[in-house]
Amino acid sequence: MKQIAKYSFGVFFLIFLLLLINPGFGQDTTKVAPPDTVKITSADTTQLVAADTVSQNEKKDKKSKDAFILYVGGNLSDLSVSSNQYSSNGELGYQIGGSYRRGKFLYWGVGAKYNLANYGLHAPGPENDTTSLAVKSIDIPLTVGLDFLFFTSRVFTVRAFGSVVPSFLVGVTDETGLGIVKDDLNSFMVFGQGGVGFDVLFFVIDVGYNFGFQDLLKDKKSTPGQAFVNLGFRF
C-alpha cells in the first residue's frame, strides 16, 4: 500500500508540474477561432453613401442631354396690312444667333438672335414700286419641343418645337419713302413660333414660322409674319 501511495503521489506531482509549465495543456484544441471581421466605421458609411449619391447623379445627368447651337439663316417676312393704308409683299432677310437646349424626348431651350426682317411696303396704287422697310430686332426664343428619336439624337433625330419669342426693336431703315421712323413702330413685340428640326451629327436644321400677336406699326393694322430656315452647328 505504501508503494502504491508513493507511485500515485509521484504521478500526481508530475501532472501538476506539467500544468505549471504549459498552461494550455488540457485545453480543447478542436475549437476553431472565429474569423476576423471587418469593422465598418461611420466614416466608411458616409463615404459609401456619398459615392452612391454621385453615381445616381451621374446616371441622372446621362438621362438629360444638352447642346449649344450657333446658327445663321434666312427669312421671308410680310405684313398683314389694311388695303386702304398700305400694300405689302414678302421680302428676304436674315438672322444670326445661338441657343441652349436640354432634355431627352421632351426638351426645352433658350436663345438669342439678331433678326433683320425686310417688309415690302408701299402706299396703295399700281404706280408705286414696292420698296423695303428693314426692321432690326433682338429676339429671345423660349422653346419647348419633342425629340422623337432622342435615343439616336447624337447621330440623327427629328424634332417638333414651339416657342414664345419676346422681340426688342433696335433699329429701322425706311426705303419706302413713306417717312416711317422707329417711333412709328412698337418697340416691344411678342411672337409665337412653330417648326420642325433635324439634327444630323453636329449639323442642325430648323424650319418654321413666326407670327406676331400685335401690330408692328402703331395704330395701324400690320400683323407681321415670318417664315425662316436656320442652319447651325451643335456642340
Quick description:
With 235 residues, the protein is of the alpha+beta class.
Structure description:
Strand 3 (106-122) and strand 4 form a beta hairpin. The chain has two helices and nine strands; from the N terminus they run H-H-E-E-E-E-E-E-E-E-E. The chain has a single domain (69-234), classed as Porin (Beta Barrel), CATH 2.40.160.20. It is 18% helix and 51% strand. The mean pLDDT is 82. It is of the alpha+beta class and 235 residues long. Strands 1, 2, 3, 4, 5, 6, 7, 8 and 9 form a nine-stranded antiparallel beta sheet that branches. The relative contact order is 0.15. The longest helix has 22 residues, at 42-63.
Measured as a percent range, the helix fraction is: 10-25%
Total helix count? 2
Amino-to-carboxy terminus distance: 109 Å
* Low confidence ranges: none
- Return the CATH class: Mainly Beta
| Estimated radius of gyration | 42 Å
Shape: elongated
Largest sheet: 9 strands, antiparallel
Strand content: over 45%
Describe the protein's topology.
Blueprint: H1 2-21, H2 42-63, E1 65-81, E2 87-103, E3 106-122, E4 131-139, E5 142-147, E6 156-174, E7 188-200, E8 203-212, E9 222-234
Antiparallel strand pairs: 1-2, 1-9, 2-3, 3-4, 3-5, 4-6, 5-6, 6-7, 7-8, 8-9
